[in-house]
Amino acid sequence: MARRAIAILAVAAASVTAAAAPLPQLVQKDGRHALMVDGAPFVMLGAQAHNSSNYPAALKKVWPAIRDMHANTLEIPVAWEQIEPVEGKFDFSYVDTLVAEARKNKVRLVLLWFATWKNTNPQYSPEWVKFDNQRFPRMLDKDGKVNYCMSPFGEETLKADKKAFVALMAHIKKIDEAHRTVIMMQVQNEVGTYGLVRDYGAKAQAAFAQAVPQAVLERQKSPVKLAAKGTWSEVYGDYAEQYFHTYAIASYIGEVARAGRAVYNLPMYVNNALRDPLEPMAPWKGNFASGGPTWDVIDIYKVAAPAIDLAAPDIYMPQSAKFTGTLDRFQRPDNALMVPELGNAATYARYTYQVLGRGALGFAPFGIDYADYSNFPLGSKLTDKTMVEPFGSIFAVFRPMERQWAKWAFEGRTYGVAESDERSEQTIAMKNWTATVSFRQWQFGEKAWNPEIKDEPANTDKPGGGVAIAQIGDNEFIVVGQQVRLRLGGAGSNDGKPTMLARVEEGSFDPSGTWIMERNWNGDQVDYGINLPAKPVVLKIRIGTY
């Protein structure tokens, strides 16, 4: 009897200890953001599986890729059609398997709710929803023709979607509250409408004729000076239909998210199929998904969906100017930066340094599993380990210091750049120091010394370099990168002073966060700048003035 009592007490104590980990949450300080997991900042070194890898049997092709990726987080769908194939009857067997296997693989989960909208259409909703236009109406065009997209004014659709999402959140709480394997939820996927700016059904028409809500007026300013208040057309002119559709979809998503968080309060976000970040502001011309959380309407989402923590860009624009422009548009004091999807082609790997250096919550290439499917030309032609390697080699050096990096980022100590398509030199401004980053340099000497040599360093035929820097002290830095030449110079209080490297240690962090030096670079290794090799490396640098 005594042994049984002791065993019961031990189990109870273990349960209390496990449940003591606080819920994941998004926190903000001085315009910076952190995803808190187990009570401390966490950076998602993520990977998103293919859309159709969301079944128990398919997971066997997911986990090997996640291991090769050295990812700490898997983003993967949960489809409405798979958990509620028959109305009112829920099946969470896939979720149970997924969560159990994630724990076994020591990976956190971000679950993607594919429901009313997935890439704007209802293909992941149950059959009893998508083929009943009377109960679950689709949008109508100006001529009354049925559109492919579900109407955001479908009251029964919202009711059913919300019911299923609440059931999912309740189940996650039931199986995972003591473990915190699931750390975030994405609500719907790349919403909006292609080819039609908004719904013209009767309910939508009536709503469009109403006055713009005051909260929207206060946040979303019109690009053209029109009426200060009034109907959508009176206030926003040619932008009115896109803005109205955005408000309708965001309100729908906000209702689903609010109901889910009332059950289990995990952080939630929306992702976005982009409009061109460099294109001059103009009314919708059919060139992006109207109603989605594009950079120009983030404020409408903030008003209409306060239960959503952030709008995040899915970046399938490999051009460096567009990639950087997108980050600039989405990283705001009121909107944390996170890149939940980007192409898995090797050219995107360099952006890991830029995104993590900017203090992002996470970074997750798409299509990271070994299913025999390629989304080329948006991503890689490859479907095996060679597809994963360019990202995995970078994640591998970040993983041992992932918690330290997240903390430094939240403190505003991190910076990062990726090699541009023009291969031009870049400068990073830090506290009392600057870092000058150049590319396609030999590790020894200066190119100008040997103008007759025309060949270039190996593996630099395409842009692939990048560096992320954490300033961990006044004169001390952690540098992570590859294929760059780095030079530190004085600025601020150090401007004009002669400087000299004190130590450039190559090494890594152990699981306890202790720095382990492998060797100290000196002589040839630093005489011509700090030259990071093709394989990602971690350096601890001290510099001083004299």
From TrEMBL:
Domain of life assignment: Bacteria
Hydrolase in keyword set: yes
UniProt signal peptide: 1-20
Domain named Glycoside hydrolase family 42 N-terminal: residues: 67-240
One Pfam family this sequence matches: Glyco_hydro_42
SUPFAM superfamilies: (Trans)glycosidases (SSF51445)
Coiled coil ranges: none
Keyword field: Glycosidase, Hydrolase, Signal
Keyword field contains Membrane: no
UniProt xrefs under Gene3D superfamilies: Glycosidases, putative beta-Galactosidase from caulobacter crescentus
DUF5597 domain sequence ranges: 393-532
Annotated protein name in UniProt: Beta-galactosidase
Originating organism: Massilia frigida
